[in-house]
Structures are given as C-alpha cells and as structure tokens.
Specification:
Elements (H helix, E strand, L loop, with lengths): L1 H23 L7 E8 L2 H13 L5 E14 L2 E15 L3 H11 L7 E5 L5 H10 L4
Antiparallel strand pairs: 1-3, 1-4, 2-3
Subunit structure: Homotrimer.
GO molecular function, one term: copper ion binding
Family: Belongs to the CutA family.
Length: 135
C-alpha cells in the first residue's frame, strides 16, 4: 500500500492542482515554459521559428537580434554571433519541441533549454494554452 501510494502521489497531486485551478481560476506555476534556441543567422532563425509555429508547438516566438557568444567547442574557445529564439509554449510540449528542433537544426548540438513560467498575465497565459493544443 505504501509503495502504491508513493507511485500514485505525482498523479494525484497533478489532478488536485488541476482541480484547484479549475475551481479557483488560479494559475498552476510551471504549466507554461519559455524555451531558448540559438541559431547561426536570421534566416535559419526565421525558418526554425516558422516550422515550430506550423507544427503548433508554440503560441509565440520572438527572434532576438544578433548577440555575441563565447563558448567552448571541442576543447577550443570559440566566439561567434547568434540569433536567439524565445519560444512560449506549454511545458508539456518541451520534449516534442526539443526533438523536432534537433531534427531540423543545422548545429550538431543546438542550444535548446527551457525555464518554467512561475507567474504572468493570466489572459496571456490562457491565450498560450488556447493556442497550443494539448498532447
């Protein structure tokens, strides 16, 4: 019984949070995320952003202008300019988003990292939810 209770805890907690959110209208922290994806140039950034949107993996993608980057690659210090995508989506879509971007990105190891959204404008967060289909 104890083992079953421990295994069921995450599911029961998630259901309780969803029920609480539905009843109170409050936001569940971490339901949405912002993913950061680096790109070599603006054209690649636009192509990847459009592909993400066409697959409905995000509600919104910002394409930030060139920034300087320093990093180690194969033991050497490298310096380059990159374009950064900020992708607003459901947290539940991050795995699918990451897999898809890796399949189309020209980098051997593209930067794809995400941070959960703790709080925000409730209307904007609802819009993200409505714009990105559930799993």
């Amino acid at each position: 019984v104890l083992t079953l209770s421990l295994l069921m805890y995450p599911v029961l907690r998630s259901l309780a949070l969803q029920l609480h959110s539905a009843v109170t209208g409050s936001y569940i922290s971490g339901t949405h995320s912002i993913a950061f994806i680096n790109c070599l140039n603006e054209q690649i950034a636009k192509d990847i952003a459009r592909a993400i949107m066409d697959k409905k993996l995000a509600a919104y993608v910002n394409i930030l202008p060139k920034s300087s980057a320093l990093y180690f690659w194969k033991g050497e210090l490298e310096e380059s300019t990159e374009i950064l995508l900020l992708v607003k989506t459901r947290t539940s879509k991050i795995g699918e988003l990451s897999d898809y971007v890796r399949s189309i990105h020209p980098f051997e190891i593209p930067e794809i990292i995400s941070l959960p959204v703790d709080q925000g404008n409730p209307l904007y967060l609802k819009w993200i939810e409505e714009s990105v289909p559930r799993d």
